[in-house]
Every structure is written in structure tokens, then in C-alpha cells.
Amino acid sequence: MTYNVDVKNDKRIVNFVTELLKRQFCLSLQMNIRLSKIAIDIAFAKSVISVKLIVNTVI
């Protein structure tokens, strides 16, 4: 069996898939950054709450 592949089309497909993968990677990276920022914000909020609780119990 032999396949005749149009090289121009093949390159377009490869470029298209590559572009999709790049965008997907960027999106997942942005999501990870957002999630880690949210996690940091939550951790900070928890520490502030715990400090307030400690201060309230001491006072």
C-alpha cells in the first residue's frame, strides 16, 4: 500500500496541531497560576483568621 500525501496540506495540519497544543499548554499554565494564586490567597486568609482568633483569645 502506498499513500500520496500533499506536503503543503501535511505541514498545515502539523502547524495547526502544534498551535492547538501551544494554546492548550498556555491555557493550562494560566489555570495553574490562577489556582495557585487562589490557594495562596486562601492560605493567607486562613492565617489571618487564625491570628485574629489567637489575638482575641489572648485579649
Describe the fold and architecture.
The chain is built from one helix and no strands. 88% of the residues lie in helices and 0% in strands. It has 59 residues and is an all-alpha fold. The mean pLDDT is 79. It is rod-shaped and about 85 Å long. The chain has a domain at 21-58.
Computed Rg: 25 Å
Residue stretches low in confidence (pLDDT < 50, at least 5 long) are none
Major beta-sheet overview: none
Average of the residue pLDDT scores = 79
Assembly context of the chains: single chain
Morphology call: rod-shaped
What is the N-to-C order of secondary-structure elements (H for helix, E for strand)? H
Fraction of residues in H or I helices = over 70%
Share in β-strands? under 5%
N-to-C CA distance: 85 Å
The number of helical segments is 1
Number of strands: 0
Question: What structural class results from the helix and strand content?
Answer: mainly alpha
Task: Jot down its keywords.
59 residues, mainly alpha, 1 helix, rod-shaped
Write the layout of secondary structure elements.
Blueprint: H1 7-58
Brief summary:
With 59 residues, this protein is mainly α. The chain contains 1 helix and no strands.
